[in-house]
Amino acid sequence: MDLQVAIDRVTLERAVDLARQLDDQVDIIELGTSLIKDYGVLQIHQALPTLQHAKLLLDIKTIDEGEYEFDKGFAAGDILTVMGAASRGTLEKVYALTQQRQKQMFIDMMEINDVKTGQIVDFPQAIYGIHHAKDAQTGFDAAATVAAFHHQYPGVQHISVAGGIDLAMAQKLAQQGIAESVIVGSAIVKTADPVATAQKFMEVMHS
């Protein structure tokens, strides 16, 4: 299982510094939506050196104008996000562009119902992101949610999960063996030593 570290709500200078530190420690480095809104894809691309090990995910949360946003986003990132709530046409267009560029598309499944989900689980190379909303007040059991999603949609091959993931939950998800990647934000980047903390997550996920 891959470790994706989400960097968000910091200065661009801090984000670049964290990305450099974590590049050879984790599998995917995510630059979050707020960071992209604050600075823009172009400025981030100019400031961030090419990563040597980790893939770069830009959480652009496309909902429309898909081809345009993905065309611009892929100039900087390896993985881009599109909302599952987007129209079927938008999803088809960005998937086609993603395949053409030999990159990856991440479908954010936040706040969509079973009917809509059933209509969009036929993009075989897409990553389906089970994502607990930041503003949601209810509890979130990542492992149980992943298991339920897998049971309902067994054909989905690439599942990612985010939402309050700590060391114990990361280990549980790794042992469960369903999710392809786990997304950790504050539990790594807000610690005194993000590199050491990321190493701990990698250890429990691969033990």
Automatic annotation (TrEMBL):
InterPro entries: Aldolase_TIM, OMPdeCOase_dom, RibuloseP-bd_barrel. Residues 2-201 form the Orotidine 5'-phosphate decarboxylase domain. It comes from the Bacteria. SUPFAM superfamilies: Ribulose-phoshate binding barrel. Keywords: Lyase. One of its GO terms (biological process) is 'de novo' pyrimidine nucleobase biosynthetic process. One of its GO terms (molecular function) is 3-dehydro-L-gulonate-6-phosphate decarboxylase activity. PANTHER family: 3-KETO-L-GULONATE-6-PHOSPHATE DECARBOXYLASE SGBH-RELATED (PTHR35039:SF3). This is 3-hexulose-6-phosphate synthase. It comes from Levilactobacillus spicheri. The lineage of its organism: Bacteria, Bacillati, Bacillota, Bacilli, Lactobacillales.
